[in-house]
Design goal:
The complex is a heterodimer of chains A (197) and B (277). Chain A is 65% helix and 3% strand. Chain A has nine helices and two strands. Chain A has helices at 7-15, 19-41, 44-61, 71-89, 122-139, 142-153, 158-165, 169-186, 191-194, and strands at residues 100-102, 108-110. By secondary structure, chain A is mainly alpha-helical. Chain A has two domains: 1-91, RNA polymerase sigma factor, region 2, helix turn helix motif (Rna Polymerase Sigma Factor, Chain: A, Orthogonal Bundle), CATH 1.10.1740; 120-197, Winged helix-like DNA-binding domain superfamily/Winged helix DNA-binding domain (Arc Repressor Mutant, subunit A), CATH 1.10.10.10. In chain A, strands 1-2 form a two-stranded antiparallel ribbon. The longest helix of chain A has 23 residues, at 19-41. In chain A, helix 3 packs across helix 4 (71-89) and helix 7 (158-165) crosses helix 8 (169-186). Chain B is of the alpha+beta class and 277 residues long. Chain B folds into two domains: 3-55; 64-276, no CATH class. Chain B is 36% helix and 26% strand. In chain B, the strands form three sheets. Chain B has a seven-stranded mixed sheet with strand order 5-4-7-8-10-15-14. Chain B has a four-stranded antiparallel sheet with strand order 1-2-3-6. The termini of chain B are far apart. The relative contact order of chain B is 0.10. Classes of the chains: A mainly alpha (197), B alpha+beta (277).
């Protein structure tokens, strides 16, 4: 998550109760925070909710932030926890992605992809692959999903993930490996798209 | 090196971070074990598919900042309103927690619904909480500011007028409020800003300008044309918002805009423009 030299100034001012400094700190990180939350949830409303909750926690805890880790890494940790809490609280919540539609009995089925026309359509295949990856990610436990997104999509280093999740680096590596294997299994249904099998 | 150990090294090998000894051992393993080789290939395919998501554009909602700050305000508001409870109250809350929640919500709703009659929203000045302090609005530096001096509590809601969906909720506390509503979308949006029964209907320009010299549409369409073309926030105060009007922009001055052949736009002291019948 992007950090600037001036975020430490804003953090110090926020710790002293300067609301406008905190407001600027939020502005500095909110888009990146939303991007991460969206990649976890794939639901715009839920992502905004997760981010808003995360910043409430940041606001309440900023006094205890000691800059031992980067603010961005701390924020990743808080967003991940908020996301996990949301999922725990709301296991029964049904979300409908843009790529899916609901049958009358409430089940989700894949929306039919319209034939894009003559010949192979690279864009359609890419889109189908993205959709399959998202569906596969959603089948994984939330914790694994968060790790995969942090490492492979958000491009965080092992050390940053270890800090964000408060885990030893070795554990991060082995859990990431397990998560990748789980993702590969989940993608078997779409073997043709990924040439897995 | 056995296959299980080699599997654990997939990521480090693909990232080139294995030491030379392990790398040689891993490559030997791959050479000798076609199944492992296939697994490694699949690993790379999965990683590639995941990493392709890095390029997937993610656009934050235009009101994200506002939603975050509103949630923070609400958390402060809730924590200050939470009474300190004794043992009896704890028991009572445990028994009637649900009812208590409804009662608190009802109090908040009652506060925001209480209003003094005869206050014109066209002044962009909304009363709330049944007290003297008022919510006011100002257009500064491309942002619509919602301002409250403090001394009382209440809630300002931001709605999408098309479906009445609440897109933001801004409680204000005795600390006061000075919140910018910023539209980060390229084009303008029309929002209802409510406290109690008073409503400010306003078109807020987006980040890009698109000038349509003339056109036909509802009052909201006219306001959006002004917002998109001239980058100004336009408050609507019209009797029949759905009626079709014809507009014509005149230079860069919103006040000169003609709607059905008349100049009906004025500039308010708070920086907003008012479109009135």
């Amino acid at each position: 998550m992007s950090t600037g030299a001036d975020d430490s100034v804003l953090i110090r001012q926020s710790q002293k109760g300067d609301r406008s400094a905190f407001d600027r700190l939020v502005r500095m990180y909110e888009e990146k925070a939303y991007q991460y939350a969206y990649r976890l949830t794939h639901d715009p409303d839920e992502a905004a909710d997760v981010v808003a909750d995360a910043f409430v926690r940041v606001y309440n805890a900023i006094g205890n932030f000691r800059s031992q880790s980067a603010f961005g890494t701390w924020l990743y940790r808080i967003i991940t926890n908020c996301y996990l809490d949301h999922k725990k609280k709301d296991k029964s919540r049904y979300t409908t992605s843009l790529d899916t539609a609901q049958t009358p009995d409430g089940q989700e089925y894949e929306r039919q992809v319209v034939d894009p026309g003559d010949g192979p359509d690279v864009e359609a295949e890419r889109s189908a692959r993205e959709s399959a990856v998202q569906t596969a990610l959603e089948q994984l436990p939330e914790y694994q999903r968060a790790m995969l997104v942090m490492y492979h999509v958000e491009n965080l280093a092992y050390e940053e993930i270890a800090e964000a999740l408060d885990l030893p680096i070795g554990t991060v590596k082995s859990r990431l490996n397990r998560a990748r294997l789980a993702l590969r299994e989940a993608l078997r249904e779409d073997a043709e798209l990924f040439k897995i099998g | 090196m056995n296959s299980n150990k080699a599997r654990d090294l997939f990521s480090e090998y693909s990232e080139g971070t294995l030491n030379p000894g392990l790398k040689a051992g891993f490559e030997r393993c791959l050479e000798q074990d076609p199944a492992l080789r296939e697994e490694y290939r699949q690993y790379l395919v999965v990683v590639q598919a995941l990493e392709a998501r890095r390029d997937e554009p993610v656009e934050a909602p235009f009101d994200l900042h506002d939603r975050i700050m509103a949630r923070i305000d609400k958390s402060i508001f809730d924590s200050r309103r939470a009474p300190s409870v004794g043992l009896f109250e704890r028991w009572r809350l445990a028994m009637f927690g649900g009812l208590g929640t409804v009662a608190v919500a009802a109090t908040v709703i009652a506060l925001v619904n209480a209003q003094r009659p005869g206050v014109e929203t066209s002044e962009a000045n909304l009363l709330s909480g049944g007290r003297e302090a008022a919510v006011s609005f100002a257009w500064r530096e491309g942002q619509l500011f919602v301002v409250h001096p403090g001394e009382s509590v209440g809630v300002v809601e931001v709605l999408n007028p098309e479906d009445k969906r609440v897109v933001g909720s801004i409680p204000y506390t005795s600390e006061g409020l000075n919140r910018a509503l910023e539209n980060k979308a390229p084009r303008s949006v029309v929002r209802e800003i409510k406290t109690g029964k008073q409503t400010l209907l306003v078109a807020i320009p987006g980040t890009e300008r698109e000038r349509r010299e003339t056109g036909e549409g509802t009052a909201a369409d006219v306001a959006r044309a002004l917002a998109d073309g001239l980058g100004v926030a336009v408050q609507l105060d019209v009797k029949d918002p759905g009626a079709v009007r014809t507009w014509r922009l005149k230079g860069d001055d919103p006040v000169a805009t003609e709607v059905d052949g008349k100049t009906v736009v004025s500039r308010l002291p708070n920086g907003l423009y008012l479109l009135k019948d």
